[in-house]
Design goal:
This protein is mainly α. The protein has one domain (42-264). It contains eleven helices and two strands. Strands 1-2 form a two-stranded antiparallel ribbon.
Length: 265
């Protein structure tokens, strides 16, 4: 094993460091265990995958054609956005709160593993679930609703879902530091469902009161929905402001979560 020499209070101390191959192996094993843990937790996986699919089947396929030929395409983007919010908020927020309560987070900090492996494993799991949600809804849109999408549009929508989950991972991480495990699902739901409604994911924004339309850009889900709409050809406006806003949301919530974890554990 490699080692490096450091000086502490004038005393030379040899500090062991882990070879790069073992560091990579630690990241890989943490990611593998995180993915297996969630795959073996149907109470998380099934609602996360089924809720947006059922909603799109009901409102985006069975009832949407009465609202015009573009309704299935429009609601595809909206329900992809709605779907990818969940793995970030619940996968980070609820699990972090529970792991803080039962001491698992403290144990992981004490283990000889890279400090970023825990967060990167959760982010990988969230992005994989987001990709699965986007692919399921795309399959329903193309093969059931007969939405005409090019290969580039499909790839753009999946990429938007995969990257778009990251702001909600950061938000979930912050929310998970605010409350204990038993109260975390309630807090996440009180954030998740109103944010989806106020962003125009369930009803088009023009149908909402004027003051609700004006505050919609406050929510990251609104900006992700604009990008998803562009991916399926429903939004021709500027995309860079929405992308930069999501990057800003991610950075701010990561900073808030990091500061609180340092203070409160």
């Amino acid at each position: 094993m490699d080692s490096m020499i450091s000086t502490v209070s004038g005393t030379v101390v040899a500090v062991a460091t882990m070879p790069r191959a073992r560091v990579f192996g630690a990241y890989l094993q943490e990611a593998r265990s995180e993915c297996l843990r969630y795959l073996r937790t149907p109470s998380f996986m099934l609602p996360t995958l089924l809720f947006p699919s059922v909603f799109y089947l009901m409102f985006g396929i069975f009832l949407a054609h009465a609202n015009g030929p573009d309704a299935p395409r429009y609601l595809l983007a909206s329900y992809v956005t709605f779907g990818v919010m969940a793995p970030g908020l619940f996968g980070f927020g609820v699990s972090l709160a529970l792991e803080r309560d039962n001491g698992l987070l403290a144990l992981k900090r004490a283990l000889p593993m890279p400090p970023g492996a825990y967060l990167l494993a959760k982010m990988l799991m969230a992005t994989l679930v987001a990709a699965a949600i986007a692919l399921i809804l795309l399959g329903m849109a193309v093969f059931v609703a007969h939405v005409d999408l090019s290969a580039d549009q499909m790839l753009a929508l999946v990429a938007t879902a995969v990257l778009g989950v990251l702001p909600f991972c950061a938000m979930g991480l912050w929310l998970g530091t605010l409350i204990k495990g038993q109260g975390a699902p309630g807090l996440i739901n009180l954030t998740y469902l109103p944010m989806a409604f106020l962003s125009g994911l369930w009803f088009p924004l023009p149908l909402l009161p004027k003051w609700l339309q004006q505050i919609a850009p406050v929510w990251p889900s609104y900006h992700l929905d604009r990008l998803a709409m562009a991916a399926v050809g429903m939004n021709k406006g500027a995309l860079l402001p929405h992308a930069l806003t999501l990057v800003g949301f991610t950075a701010v919530f990561l900073l808030l979560a990091t500061r609180r974890l340092r203070r409160c554990g």
